[in-house]
Amino acid sequence: MTVTIHRTALLLLTGLVTLAGCSDTPNTTEQSVEGATRAATPPATEETLLLQAPPAWLRVEEQSSEAFRLAEYVPAGQSKDAWNDRIFIEANALKPLPDPISFLETMGAELKTECTDSNHNNIHSGLENGYPTSVRLLICNKSNLSARSEVSLIKAIQGKDFFYVVSRARRSDVLQNDEPPLSQKEMGEWSLYMRSIKVCDPRSDAHPCPADLQSGT
User: Which of its termini does the chain have fewer beta carbons within 10 Å around, N or C?
Assistant: First the structure.
């Protein structure tokens, strides 16, 4: 199940998200419609966000307009309002598009007003598939709002048409100052997941898309 966000193929976003499910109970009709939508989708013609949701994660929110897209996922058994793990995707076309590094640094600095003890660190910044990209780890030991800890790994990509932000977050009990928010294995898994998320543009050799996306298969 691949999520693609771009202006000319909104059916691709809606159809492929359906396979993740809107409830814990599989829906054969929904899956059949999804398969037909995928088969009928033309090749991508504009800038596209490529993202694979983890197995058994469900879509709990989706919005779209010409200048804005968002989608939200949680694992089966969790909900939009009561989640421990969440993936949040946003694409915004407002100009000028932000610088990814500055954008995430500002998000990290804001933790000081939102948390009791916090930290943020750059994980990676540079070009990915020709686009300026930054990934940052944000750690809130105790949220002033929820009284829980929250760790977020956030990837920001400055495309040509949209500014993309993908956040993978986890809420848990309050962290002590020397307690790691994730195990080494989990951090590795989250990092690999973020590395798999890319933006491409079939109109440009500088931002190549996968062959199956360009062919529409």
Answer: C
What does the alpha-carbon distance between residue 38 and residue 40 come to, in Å, rounded to a whole number?
A: 5
CATH code, domain carrying 103 = 3.40.1000.10
Q: Is residue 216 within 8 Å of residue 41, measured between CB atoms?
A: yes
How many angstroms separate the CA atoms of 60 and 71, rounded? 8
Backbone angles phi, psi at 81, to 5 degrees: -95, -20
Q: Domain limits at 62?
A: 2-215
Into how many domains does the chain fold?
1
In angstroms, the CA 129 to CA 140 distance is 31
Q: What is the pLDDT along the chain (217 residues), one digit of tens a residue?
A: 444 443 322 222 322 222 222 333 333 333 333 333 333 445 667 899 999 899 999 999 999 888 999 999 999 999 999 999 999 999 999 899 999 999 999 999 999 899 888 899 999 999 999 999 999 999 998 888 888 889 999 999 999 999 999 999 999 888 776 777 888 898 999 999 999 999 999 999 999 998 877 665 5
